[in-house]
Amino acid sequence: MPVMVVAGLFMVGLFVTAGTSTGVLVVEARSVYGSKSIPLTATATVGGTTLTTPFNLTLVPGLYTVAYSQLPWLHTADSRTIQVVGGRTVYAVGVYSPIVDVIGVTDAGFNATSVRAEHVITPVIWVNTGTNAVVLQSSLFSVTLNPGGNYTRFFTTGGTVTVTVLGTTHAMTVYIA
User: Fold this and answer.
1) Residue 78 vs residues 30, 81, 144: alpha-carbon distances, Å
2) Which end of the chain has the smaller Cβ count within 10 Å, N or C?
3) CA 124 – CA 115 distance, rounded (Å)
4) Cβ contacts of residue 57 below 8 Å, gap of 6+?
5) How far apart are CA 148 and CA 155, in angstroms?
6) What is the SS3 string spanning 113-145?
7) d(CA 177, CA 73)
8) Residue 2: CB partners within 8 Å, gap ≥ 6?
9) How many CB atoms lie within 10 A of CB 98?
10) With 0-12 CB in 10 A as exposed, 13-18 as middle and 19+ as buried, what is 174?
11) pLDDT (tens digit, 9 = 90+) per residue, 17-72?
């Protein structure tokens, strides 16, 4: 009989401990565009606590809302509700996407004279909206765009790049922060 009492108390202790043990919430932020995924530093708020990503929180079991901050050049990650379970690690990844500038180009020129981009984060996309092929030329690239074709460029360093339509005087400037 005493063995059963001790075993019963042990089992009750396990259930009480399992129900009240803490879990870990790992919070991260990433910029995702196509197949590119880049870790970001952003602030996120969980249960009234605001920290800079990436971070871990030890929490009692329950539902928690993770809200992410706004970042320049990016669409803000959606808030998400995460269930923390005792003895487990769960992840909340805020997915930011770049605010993309799309530039129309024809043999008659560009639809913008300049654009701003954040290096490595914000792509610039040129789309040939005309009926003739055009050649985009700069100090960094030269590419032929057929009608309806497009070219996407992530700039890896800051600075200024002038892009021209080859064989014309049409030019635009990309300011890279």
Assistant:
1) 12, 10, 37
2) N
3) 8
4) 24, 25, 27, 46, 49, 51
5) 23
6) CEEEECCCCCCEEEEECCCCCEEEECCCCEEEE
7) 10
8) none
9) 20
10) buried
11) 445 699 999 999 998 887 888 899 999 999 999 999 999 999 999 999 999 999 98
pLDDT digits (tens, 9 = 90+) for 75-129: 999 999 999 999 999 999 999 998 888 999 998 999 999 999 888 888 899 999 9
CB < 8 Å & 24+ apart, contacts of 38-45: 38/120, 38/121, 40/71, 40/74, 40/96, 42/68, 42/69, 42/71, 42/77, 42/94, 42/96, 43/68, 43/69, 44/68, 44/69, 44/92, 44/94
**Residue at 100: amino acid letter:** V
Predicted confidence (pLDDT) at residue 10 exceeds the cutoff of 70: no
